[in-house]
Design goal:
single chain, 228 residues, seven-stranded mixed sheet, 9 strands
Length: 228
């Protein structure tokens, strides 16, 4: 079994599954945990033609927790953009995420109708996935997320045409708004097109209006397919 399964799923609300969204949780959470959080905020988090997939990160030692095991997608030397990325664990989780995407492609979903995104650490991994690991995705979103100043994404970006959606709380003390803004600005300087939405009176958290905006953006980058 894959290290990031079992998967929590929100099925399309009609019979045609023509697009997929892989939603990656933040550090220390699970697929079930972030799905429960989303359902608490917005009861009907669904779209007629899209399957939402919520995997769980494997347990691994996490340096910011003094090496304790935690469900994290990759390790960090510290929670700041000023340190190097932990490239070894990023390259390790890459294979799991690429495998999950391949499963959707094998099920008949074109790569350009698959979106990968996430909250906090999950959003950072989504940026690596879209712009380094799997070029050609339909879109990428990063909520309350950032990339390190010397990120491999900036050095080896491959898919500047993949649209980006970012939201960030203005009162986020764990991941300050400025880190998210700088990440977005660095990516746009490299040619990425997207939108950055500051969220007022928001800490390091998801918000209902943020999720509503995400659903609207998703419908734009993965529109319903027209019948014959």
């Amino acid at each position: 079994m894959s290290r990031i399964k079992p998967l929590r799923i929100i099925k399309p609300t009609n019979s045609s599954h023509t697009g997929s969204v892989i939603f990656l949780h933040g550090s220390g959470d699970t697929g079930k945990g972030i799905l429960d959080w989303i359902k608490f905020l917005i009861r009907d988090f669904s779209l007629p033609h899209i399957k939402f997939i919520f995997p769980t990160a494997p347990l691994r030692p996490y340096t910011p927790l003094d090496g304790a095991l935690s469900n994290v997608w990759f390790n960090r030397y510290d929670i700041t953009p000023d340190v190097p990325e932990h490239v070894e664990t990023l390259d390790d989780i890459k294979h799991d995420i690429k495998s999950l995407i391949s499963e959707e492609v094998d099920a008949g979903i074109p790569l350009n109708r698959i979106v990968v995104g996430g909250f906090s650490m999950g959003g950072a991994l989504a940026l690596h996935t879209a712009y380094r690991f799997t070029p050609g995705l339909g879109g990428v979103f990063a909520l309350s997320s950032f990339l390190n100043n010397e990120s491999e994404v900036y050095k080896t970006i491959q898919a500047v045409d993949t649209p980006l959606f970012m939201c960030h709380g203005d009162r986020d003390e764990l991941v300050p708004l400025e880190w998210g803004e700088e990440t977005f600005n660095n990516l746009t300087k490299l040619g990425v097109k997207g939108e950055f939405i500051p969220l007022t009176n928001t800490l390091h958290e998801l918000k209902k209006n943020e999720l509503e905006k995400l659903l609207e953006w998703t419908k734009i980058v993965i529109p319903p397919e027209r019948g014959p």
